[in-house]
């Protein structure tokens, strides 16, 4: 007998673990293993999807967008995603309209990552929803937990930034290159640094 269902086309797989799917475990905030049988099966399907996204020459841009919509959680109008891109689930990545993702961006999307309309992410960024216990003993077995990342509209994240689990970035935010975003950022802010610090606010008349 097989519990749950598995669909590799959309990378949606569900196997019951103590009466819950791994997605339900993650959503509840409980710990999970990044090396579970379900995670390993997902990585095989994700590798195939990433190979298609990153290495296919599409006849039309619409064909690529249609494929992205079959793999990701949601894709708005007129996306621009430069290769290579990487994610661990795909189905937990939600993109608004006219989102720009530059090359070599990594999404560790065990929990949802939502990116608002007209936002831009520069090369080399890492957005990770996964954290691990601080206790070495509790980290054994690849123990993990996850928290979602939410990015508002018209956000610009500079090159080589890292965004931590559970962070919310408001609208119209600019994050300077090489920053570590380890806390929430209010709308209309410029932040930079590792960890980030507030630089200034953005006014309506900002160039």
What can you tell me about this protein's structure?
The protein is α/β, with parallel strands linked by helices and 207 residues long. The chain has a single domain (6-201), classed as Hexapeptide repeat proteins (UDP N-Acetylglucosamine Acyltransferase, domain 1, 3 Solenoid), CATH 2.160.10. Helices cover 19% and strands 28% of the residues. It is built from 4 helices and 22 strands. It has helices at residues 22-27, 37-55, 61-71, 136-139, and strands spanning 6-7, 12-13, 32-33, 74-75, 80-81, 85-87, 93-95, 100-101, 105-108, 113-115, 120-121, 126-128, 130-131, 143-146, 149-151, 156-157, 162-163, 168-169, 174-175, 180-181, 189-192, 197-201. The strands form 5 sheets. Strands 5-8-11-16-19-21-22 form a 7-stranded mixed β-sheet, with no helix packed on it. Strand 21 (189-192) and strand 22 form a beta hairpin. The longest helix is centred in the N-terminal third of the chain and has 19 residues, at 37-55. It is globular, with a radius of gyration of 18 Å. It starts with 5 loop residues before the first strand and ends in a 6-residue tail after the last strand. Mean pLDDT is 88; it is low at 1-9.
């Amino acid at each position: 007998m097989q519990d749950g269902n598995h669909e590799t086309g959309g990378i949606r797989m569900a196997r019951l673990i103590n009466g819950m799917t791994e997605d339900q475990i993650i959503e509840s905030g409980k710990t999970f293993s990044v090396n579970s049988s379900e995670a390993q099966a997902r990585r095989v399907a994700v590798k195939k999807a990433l190979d298609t996204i990153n290495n296919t020459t599409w006849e039309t841009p619409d064909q690529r967008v249609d494929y992205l919509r079959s793999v990701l959680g949601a894709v708005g109008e007129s996306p621009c995603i430069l290769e290579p891109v990487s994610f661990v689930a795909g189905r937990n990545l939600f993109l608004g309209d006219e989102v720009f993702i530059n090359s070599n961006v990594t999404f560790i999307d065990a929990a949802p990552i939502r990116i608002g309309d007209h936002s831009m992410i520069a090369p080399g960024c890492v957005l990770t929803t996964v954290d691990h216990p601080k206790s070495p003993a509790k980290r054994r077995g690849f123990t993990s937990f996850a928290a979602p990342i939410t990015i508002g509209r018209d956000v610009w994240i500079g090159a080589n930034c890292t965004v931590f689990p559970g962070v919310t970035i408001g609208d119209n935010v600019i994050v300077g290159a090489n920053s570590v975003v380890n806390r929430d950022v209010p709308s209309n802010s410029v932040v930079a640094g590792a960890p980030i610090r507030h630089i200034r606010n953005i006014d309506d008349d900002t160039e």
